[in-house]
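EI: anyone free to look at a 486-residue chain?
SC: sure, send it
EI:
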Amino acid sequence: MSERKILTTESGMPVADNQNSQTAGSGGPVLLQDHQLIEKLAHFDRERVPERVVHAKGSGAYGYFEVTADVTRWTRAKFLAPIGKRTELFLRFSTVAGEKGSADTVRDPRGFAIKFYTEEGNYDLVGNNTPVFFIRDPLKFPDFIHSQKRDPYTNIQEPENAWDFFSLSPEATHQFTILFGDRGIPASYRHMDGFGSHTFQWVNAAGEVFWVKYHFKTDQGIKNLTAEEAAHLAGTAPDHHQRDLLMAIDRGEFPSWTVKLQIMPAIEAAKYRYNPFDLTKVWPNRDYPQITIGKMVLNRNPENYFAEVEQAAFNPAHFVPGIGPSPDKMLQGRLFAYGDTHRYRIGINHTQLPVNRPHAPVNDYLRDGAMRFDGNSKRQKNYEPNSFGGPAQSNQAVWAPTEVHGMAGTHAPKRHAEDDDFVQAGALYRLMSEAEKQRLAANIAGSLGQVSKNEIIERSIAHFRQADTDYGERVAKAVAAKRTAR
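SC: here you go
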């Protein structure tokens, strides 16, 4: 039997008594000299870092990505070749609008963020379980999230705010149709698909450019919760998704996803019938069929939730050679916002934390800052260029340049031949079975029926009517019945 370790302070000093504070006599006041007490309380007071503004509640696991098809014709990213190659990864699932203490089973999109620890640095693919989003311009994002969060007066998430924003933002019709449909509440994180959502650039060794969309198809099958099932779990097992993922991996039931791509040669983007960089749109599979390229498996739980899940920081600006951004305006906004929020939330040196630390060598001139605990590059020069053999630029672009033209200023998005805010929402509605349509209308009515302003209800229903006449009429009847019953 190994010898029991001695409890120490943070500085390593042995602790003689961890049960009783130092006092002036047995009944006297506590002494300021009690370093163990002061250290424990001071650390405890600071244990909580600010929660994420969005995606605050999440679950995570380690695993790997395995290449199953040759993709070198489209990208020179080293972790994607050869066939059979495996790359370690960390994946964090999350809800979007709720706080850390909210229920897992709320009706909300789910975050699907992956950190690939590649030999060329970390590649962060930060997506959702939906292929589209509510808005297409990052300028609207703070307002959208404010409409989903707690009201400044009632301190409650108000359906009236969410629907008011939606009624004035018709581009959200597609995402609202997904959100209030059957897939709006997954049965577990294991039983839902994931998407990169945005369009990304791939470039091959010859410099040829392709636009791609990522799809992660669950091998466990799609399973969802009804509104009634979700409400029951929210009251009896609010951490249902966290427990399900943790227990499944502990049992050796490793969840997996088949990874697929849609690939568009860059030359086809300008004349495509939809704007290929509009986050409120999908690329129909008949235009660009999905191609299987790999398998993703989760096989290891974190040992410590705070260290590895709460401090995990994903940044869509973390690319690797052969992969880059697109002109997607929402993606462009996220390239700044994610890194900025991590610097605020967990510090300027958050990339040195074990869960975020690249497995590839890091050679930079970034120095100092709070929580710098890696030696701070010791004696190495902290400027570039220098004459002392410091790291120098590679002179090889990570991704291909994108041609731009026009006048600098604020611009409405350029419309392609079949662009509007309702056509894809209507097409999705018409794919649903009768039972699915009934549940969709009932789910919408359950929320929209709580709104007090008639003009907000009418504007919202008008969007659904523009997507499909039957869709709008069905929602109108369901809302009217809901309001009559109140």
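EI: The longest strand covers residues 58-67.
SC: 👍
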